[in-house]
Amino acid sequence: MERRKKALLILNEYETKDTYLNLALKQGLAELTEGAAFVTEVVYGVVRYRRFLDAKISQYSSVKLKKLSIPVKNILRIAFYQIYFMEKIPAFAILNESGKLATKFAYKSKGFINAVLRKGVEKTNEELPLGVRLSFSDEVCDKILAQYGGEAETILNNLNEKTPIALRYNHLRFSSPEAAAEKLEDAKIADDVIFPGDKGSPASLIENGDFSIQSASSQLAVRVLDPKPGTRVLDCCSAPGGKTAYIGELMQNRGELIACELHSHRCELVKKNLSRCGVTIGKVIEADASEVEFSEAFDCVLADVPCSGLGVIGSKPDIKWRDFRFDELVALQKKILLHISQYVKENGILVYSTCTINQEENIRQIEWFLKENPQFSLEPFSEEYGGKRYGETGVAQILPDGTSIGFFVAKLRKGKK
Asked: Which of the residues 144, 208, 348, 411 could staple to 379 if both were Cys, CB 3.0 to 4.6 A apart?
């Protein structure tokens, strides 16, 4: 029962204290001596498929879902997740372990839980609406359907797949990905990005800055920016600092690098990342990217703006259940883009990026910006990613495929080419 108990406690913590799922999981696993993989799968799985699991509970429950306590709901969610997504676990084991959890955490509801699950273990596969079946809100589901049509179901399915861990090697310390990969066991290299083998990467190599955990898409944005040694560069929405450090590495610690971040505690994250990676040219300032002022313009600017994060649901499933407020996000992105663009030098580069697949935050933003700012134009680039080449038109919309996150990059040049 201990593994399921730990999963239940983490899920209860996540819901009652409104914390980030990854933080609740990290804290919960810190005290666990074994079974971390099982707990992680169950916790992420329950959150990822919450709408589907709640539909199953409602199908067999005589009590409305909103009237169930959080522990009762989570005991049932854990059970139904095992029934539908961990098929090797026998029904009797699910019933038995759920009964033990009920005895300890929901004693008065033990009979109710047992009754629901005795019906539920029969496992039905009736036709369900797409949003329920794949466990997305109607708002997100409808938006992706409207924007991607026949591709939508595949995209939503891929967003339910956890993406593999990717590493960025420190370009100040290694001359090539091959040289860096020698420090790892069974690592694979793809387009300058390293994917660690089953044994992963030793924590010490992350702590000392030899490697950083950073998605391949995120690395792509910096490669498109292409910062050169000796230039003046701005990363205007910089926390937690992965891209900032990468920029400094590509600049070979020569030039001027400014990192702008709104909150002081997030500024500290950027500073720690720069220090860990040995980037000494970075200056971190606490400021609002939509209002900050500079006395000089920059050779290139990276605007990795706040976004809905729909592209990273695979590794952060709790994003699914946010109150997105898309209109407010789009307005904020426009404000940042419009303001920060005035600090791009003539003939300089502005890269706009997000980790979402929502076209309103991506290509529609760029179309609007170019209409309002004719002094800018799209700059073609050529980058290999996941076996495909992107950038011929100056933009790259990467869709989740089960191995990569959803990401958008646009490269703009100011004035003459």
From this structure: 411
